[in-house]
User: What shape does this take?
Amino acid sequence: MSESSESLLAAEASSRNVHQRSNRFGNWQEHHRWSAGSSLRRLAARPLGSLLTIAVMGLALALPLAFYLLLGNVQQLGHALGQSQAISVFLQPGQSAPQAQMLAQQLGDRPELASVIVKTPQQGMDELAKMQGFSGALQALEENPLPYVLQLQPRDEASAQSLEQLVTDVRGMQGVDLVQDSGTWRQRLDALLGVGNRVVLVLAALLAVAALLVVGNTVRVDIASRSDEIGVLLVIGASGAFIRRPYLYSGIWYGLFSGVLAGCLAVLIELTLATPVAQLSQAYDGKLQIGGLPAGLLLAVPLIAATLGWLGARLVSAWQLRKAV
Assistant: This one.
């Protein structure tokens, strides 16, 4: 056989292989499209059962979102109530203004502090005069008994240990009479928030497993009801991937719709709390800023739920098909 004939035969064989691979890829794409549409039609054919499954999964996924929203707003409430409240340093009676300024300048060099404000006795008296019931009593005083007060504002990034050490150092300084600090309260709040974060993570993991089991059980029942059809497909040589594909898409649809429902429920909770939260914010002169769930998280929930649905369907369908073989 001539070299040209061999090249022609090789080219023809290569073209035939490419055509076969193209056909296989086209068939694979076509079966994916058919599986997605067929599984969606199966869900629509039994609306009550499908809606109940989606509702159960949606409620399970909405719970960690609600706890996450609550935890984030409790943290904001902690800031508004004084999580970063200034440390008040009361100087001993008889301390002069230059001494107070010198101590303020000395403390202003500390890296833990953002600012140091000196409040004079007269400023303290004016604040008391504005409080109901104090004005008459203050007029009876012959002299101002209030000391100089230094208000230390910690930096946001300052750690609890560094602030605790700061308070200890200030209490030992000359001329300091009393130090009022909310450090213990801050540490307790941080500890509670840490526990809350861990609880949210554990709850999210448990409810994700619950959603996975719900999808798995639904797919298991569906496969069991079509055992004869699956048996025929196995006899004619259908592969496991071919048989599983419609059930995998069922799991994806269940997860996707339940994720959308969970996001809608979370937004509904935010809207329900909007009015009382606005009233609470007004009570704190607008200092309380309540936030909602991040848009990225709401968009990610349906994708995560769809993945969980696919995983549950994948595990159950593989196990069911191994039993059928």
Observations:
- The beta strands are 87-91, 113-119, 149-154, 176-180.
- The chain has ten helices and four strands.
